[in-house]
Design a protein that fits this description.
By secondary structure, the protein is an all-alpha fold. The chain has one domain (2-87). It has helices at 2-16, 24-47, 56-68, 71-87. α1 runs parallel beside α3 and α2 (24-47) runs antiparallel to α3. The relative contact order is 0.19.
């Protein structure tokens, strides 16, 4: 199960960490609503003594966070970033 938890976090980072955009508002939104939410969740779990990788409760919290992210907004931001790059 530990490997499953590691895979969840790796998948999340591979899918969402590499967003770049010339549009500052989109970058701010991504930082606040994706990156910081994940960091805050992991830090909160550790503060409560819950290992996000080794415990079922931790893996569940990570899965819930992944499922609550606004993927539609992320897709729109990626399209906007590509259009802005073309414009520049």
């Amino acid at each position: 199960m530990y490997e499953k938890g590691v895979k969840q976090l790796e998948d999340f980072h591979n899918k969402y960490d590499d967003f770049m955009s010339p549009i500052a508002k989109d970058m701010e939104w991504h930082e606040k609503n994706v990156i910081q939410r994940m960091q805050n969740t992991i830090n909160d779990l550790y503060a409560r003594g819950i290992d996000p990788l080794r415990s079922a409760e931790g893996r569940t919290a990570i899965a819930q966070l992944k499922n609550s992210i606004d993927t539609g907004r992320i897709a729109r931001n990626k399209i906007s970033a590509a259009n802005a790059q073309l414009f520049l």
